[in-house]
Structure formats: structure tokens, C-alpha cells
Design a protein that fits this description.
39% of the residues lie in helices and 14% in strands. With 434 residues, the chain is an alpha/beta fold. It has a single domain, classed as TIM Barrel (Alpha-Beta Barrel). The chain has an eight-stranded parallel beta barrel, surrounded by six helices. The longest helix is centred in the middle third of the chain and has 24 residues. The structure holds beta-D-fucopyranose. The site of beta-D-fucopyranose has 12 residues, from loops.
């Protein structure tokens, strides 16, 4: 149990994203996204799993709103599927798609739950990918148009609106490592994509501010602390490089109008003269997603991280202290706006037995990470809220339905939802911290 309570007004939430839960991939005029193409290409995902049906949230959202309300949270973070509202990523808007997000937002508000939306959680309209996707500078302008329209439509009812979720993943997992859509394996392209993502963020903020969009505007970055495995100079240099590529590559342009330098970093994007002025828009808030730390070992084979025994079902080390370290380092390096922890959570090999999921490991993960957040707040970091990833078990990208992050168990055969022990724990933790 944390010693001290969280301050009054601290926002307690849960998070999801469109492609991971909505399903209804071919309904009501939704266009194709790069994740439809990627997941339907053999060999890309666990047992060929796709998001075609997922949690069928598109149809079951009223029940899911009830479940959110049942957790006693203040807020729900979801993402808007760009191809559902603008099927080709430019031009015509899809009324049925727009209506869906209206109903979702109004349904949340009717239950007293504040909606926090993200504009891009990885599902680029395939039509834009066919024109070069995020490798093309033009996509940044298409994104700004989309952001502006959604901001004007929903902004009066949203608590926050984020441009991107985890641009590092879009750039590097999608374009260097090939593990995520669109599945490219090109280091220089990944760096150029990261630049266009940052540019699109800046352009979207400029457009939405010019239109007077009412929601608080920001971006969500995935971040990790980095630990050198030994005291060697090689490990120190590797750690510096990893931190530069993972954290500073997105923070420096936004807060310091530059890209970082680090040992061994040699690829920089093609940028136009005023790009940093566009990118470095003032933020109303910064969203940070944290799951694990980066362990920097230059040895071959690498030295294993120390806590892998209690690792999550993803094989990620449980290292709550890294969240404190990371937040304090951000606070030292940049002039941060208010921070939300927009994602934090763990995958467990959950078993549903007699209607119950005993997920003690998840509860311990949550408890320790909430304690880590409190420690950072005591160190001066202005953290305003916490969103557990995820509300529901869902489509975990290339891992398909094999990995379960939810507070609520989903039986994908019947779409039955069952709150796990962690759901009850979170509910009482929130009550005790009001
Ligand atoms: C994050 C993603 C989210 C989910 C979690 C486990 O990187 O934003 O969609 O997949 O990881």
C-alpha cells in the first residue's frame, strides 16, 4: 500500500485503442487501415490473428461503458480510427463513423466518465500508405486536416486530445524492425517517418489551436529508463544511444527544437528550415506510457536483465523503479507540462476458473508502479493522472489474442466479459485515494 494518498483531483482511468477492440472492420463504411493489410498478410501475427472482430466493441460499447463505470474510474482513454471517419485519409467523411464516436463520447459523459481521445494509434488509412504513408511529408498535412475536423467535432466534450500514441513504435517497429504495420525494414525510412510524425503533431496542434478546439492538447510518448548492464565504457555509450533514440528523439524536438546526438547515432532525417518551429508547439499536457526499462548490454550475448524471472507474459522485466527514474530525468532535462501516465500495465497468463481470474501478479505490478509514480511526484514531477492499460483483454498487435493485459477478461468465442481480481483491487485503491 502506498504510504501517502494521491492528491484530490488526480485522474484515475483505463485505456484502449481502436483497432485493438472495435472489430466491425468491414462495417458502416470503414476504410481499410495498414493494420488490416498487415494482419491479413500471412506470417505477420501470432497464428494469423487479425482485429476483424477483436472485442466487438463497435457493437458492445454500451456494455463496455457500464464496465468502465463499474471500475469507479474518472476517465477513459480511447483512440479514433482514422479510416472509420475518413476512409481514404483525405476527402470524404464517413457519417456513420463520426456518429459512432459521438455516441461513445456522449455515453461516457452520461456516466460521468471523462473522455480522453487519441487521434492516431497506428491505424493509418491504407489509401495513404499506398501514396507513401508516413514516409511521405504530405501525410503530415492529411493528418492535420483529420485532427482539425475531429477536434472541432468532439473537442467541446473531450477532456484531452492527443495527436499520436507512441510515435517511436510507428517509426521503428513499423519501419525499421518490421514487427508492426506497415512492416518495413529500413532504418533511414524509420528516422524520416519519425520526423514526419513529429511534424504532423505540430501541424495538427497549430490547426486545432487556430480553430479554437477546446480540449487540452498533447501527445503520448512511450518512454523507458535505461540502465547500463555494467560499469564498462561500452555499456555507458550504448545506454546513452538507446536513451537518445527512444526518449530524447521525441522530447528534444518538442521541447528543445533539435534532434539529440549520441555515440553511434548517424542517421538524421531530411528536414525543412522551419520544421522545429512547427514541431515545438506548447503542450497542455504530455502523456507518458511506461512498461519496462531498457537494459543496455553491449556484450555478446547480452547480459540478461536481473528481474526477468518475474517478467510479464510479454517477457518484459518488471521494474517499477524505472518509472520514477524516468520521470525524474524528464523533469531534470525538460520544462514539462502536466503529465499523465497514459499507459501502464502488464500481460499475465490469466486463467478464468469458476468465473474468477486470480491475477495477483497484475495487482502487484499496479501497486508497485503507482508507488513509483507517487515517488516521482514527491520529487517534483507534476503527474495529474494514471490510465491502466488496458480496460479489456484485446488484440495485442503482432501477438494477437495470445497476450492479456485487461482488468476485464474477454472470452473471444462468446465475447463474455469477466472482471478480474485486479479490477476490484483497482476500484478499491481508487476509493481509498479519493
Ligand atoms: C503499447 C501500446 C498499446 C498496447 C501496449 C501493451 O505500446 O500503445 O496499444 O499494445 O503497448
Amino acid at each position: 500500500m502506498t504510504q501517502q494518498k494521491f492528491p484530490p483531483g488526480f485522474v484515475w482511468g483505463v485505456a484502449t485503442s481502436a483497432y485493438q477492440i472495435e472489430g466491425a472492420a468491414n462495417e458502416d463504411g470503414r476504410g481499410k487501415s495498414i493494420w488490416d493489410t498487415f494482419s491479413h498478410t500471412p506470417g505477420n501475427t501470432f497464428q494469423g490473428h487479425t482485429g476483424d472482430v477483436a472485442c466487438d466493441h463497435y457493437h458492445r460499447y454500451p456494455q463496455d461503458i457500464e464496465l468502465i463505470a463499474g471500475l469507479g474510474v474518472d476517465a477513459y482513454r480511447f483512440s479514433i480510427a482514422w479510416p472509420r471517419v475518413q476512409p481514404a485519409g483525405r476527402g470524404a467523411w464517413n457519417q456513420k463513423g463520426l456518429d459512432f464516436y459521438d455516441r461513445l463520447v456522449d455515453g461516457l459523459l452520461a456516466k460521468g466518465i471523462a473522455p480522453h481521445a487519441t487521434l492516431y494509434h497506428w491505424d493509418l488509412p491504407q489509401a495513404l500508405q499506398d501514396e507513401g504513408g508516413w514516409g511521405s511529408r504530405d501525410t503530415a498535412d492529411r493528418f492535420a486536416d483529420y485532427a482539425d475536423v475531429m477536434g472541432q467535432r468532439l473537442g467541446d466534450r473531450l477532456a484531452t486530445l492527443s495527436t499520436h500514441n507512441e510515435p517511436w513504435c510507428t517509426a521503428h517497429l513499423g519501419h525499421r524492425i518490421g514487427q508492426f504495420a506497415p512492416g518495413a525494414r529500413d532504418p533511414a525510412l524509420a528516422i524520416q517517418v519519425a520526423h514526419h510524425l513529429l511534424l504532423s503533431h505540430g501541424k495538427a496542434l497549430l490547426a486545432m489551436r487556430a480553430s479554437g478546439v477546446k480540449a487540452l492538447l498533447g501527445i503520448v510518448l512511450n518512454q523507458s529508463s535505461v540502465t547500463p548492464a555494467t560499469a564498462s565504457a561500452a555499456d555507458a555509450a550504448l545506454a546513452e544511444r538507446e536513451y537518445a533514440l527512444f526518449v530524447r528523439w521525441f522530447m528534444d524536438p518538442i521541447f528543445l527544437k533539435r534532434y539529440p546526438t549520441a555515440p553511434g547515432v548517424s542517421i538524421y532525417p531530411v528536414a525543412h528550415e522551419n520544421d522545429f518551429d512547427v514541431i515545438a508547439q506548447p503542450l497542455d499536457f504530455l502523456g507518458i506510457n511506461y512498461y519496462t526499462r531498457i537494459w543496455a548490454s553491449s556484450e555478446e550475448p547480452p547480459r540478461p536483465a536481473p528481474n526477468l524471472q518475474g517478467a510479464s507474459d510479454m517477457g518484459w522485466e518488471n521494474y517499477a523503479q524505472g518509472l520514477t527514474e524516468l520521470l525524474l530525468q524528464d523533469h531534470r532535462d525538460y520544462k514539462l507540462p502536466p503529465v499523465y501516465i497514459t499507459e501502464n500495465g502488464t500481460a499475465c497468463a490469466d486463467l478464468l476458473i469458476d468465473g474468477r481470474v486470480n491475477d495477483a501478479d497484475r495487482i502487484e505490478y499496479m501497486r508497485s508502479h503507482l508507488e513509483a509514480i507517487r515517488a516521482a511526484m514527491e520529487g517534483g514531477v507534476d503527474v495529474r493522472g494514471f490510465f491502466y492499460w488496458s480496460l479489456l483483454d484485446n488484440y495485442e498487435w503482432n501477438s494477437g489474442y495470445d497476450k492479456r493485459f485487461g482488468l476485464i477478461h474477454v472470452d473471444y468465442e462468446t465475447q463474455t466479459r469477466t472482471p478480474k481480481d485486479s479490477a476490484g483491487w483497482y476500484r478499491s485503491f481508487i476509493q481509498r485515494n479519493r
